[in-house]
């Protein structure tokens, strides 16, 4: 083989690698920007469902196709430089309140099995898990969110309903630590 052919093949192979790397970077950017993004849970407001420092995947595309539903765990822009993760409790048109530690949406009791462990801990302390509030009417283009750790959550009780345009996406699954891999529900 001539040196010229070998040099040409090397240049060709290098160019192919550069194109493949460029495409991979562009795809990663598009996926992260428009479809899925990693998120790190900060704090204990979603205990015992999600734990501090767990890493999860957020589906950013889902709410371009549908609206958040009651029970979804979402990430939203709460402050200029900080995102929160909470559970959707009520959607536009709903009336939400808590009476005697019972969540009511549109006057009907809501079963919240994900709060069982937290209810036990609150009972040991001799306090309700969720203090009475409301009724609050959720406006158009808004959702009402609460943390699962109601004794330690800065949520819609303090910051009010969340505008839909502040929602980043729905938490799908925990991927880190690997031993805790599971759906985020």
Automatic annotation (TrEMBL):
GO terms for molecular function: serine-type endopeptidase activity; signal peptidase activity. GO terms for biological process: signal peptide processing. One of its GO terms (cellular component) is plasma membrane. It is a single-pass type II membrane protein. The keyword Kinase does not apply. Pfam families: Peptidase_S26. InterPro entries: LexA/Signal_pep-like_sf, Pept_S26A_signal_pept_1, Pept_S26A_signal_pept_1_CS, Pept_S26A_signal_pept_1_Ser-AS, Peptidase_S26. Residues 15-176 form the Peptidase S26 domain. It is an enzyme of class 3 (hydrolase). The active site is at residues 45, 86. Keywords: Cell membrane, Hydrolase, Membrane, Protease, Transmembrane, Transmembrane helix. It is found in: Cell membrane; Membrane. The chain crosses the membrane at residues 20-41. Belongs to the peptidase S26 family. NCBIfam families: sigpep_I_bact. This is Signal peptidase I. It comes from Brevibacillus aydinogluensis.
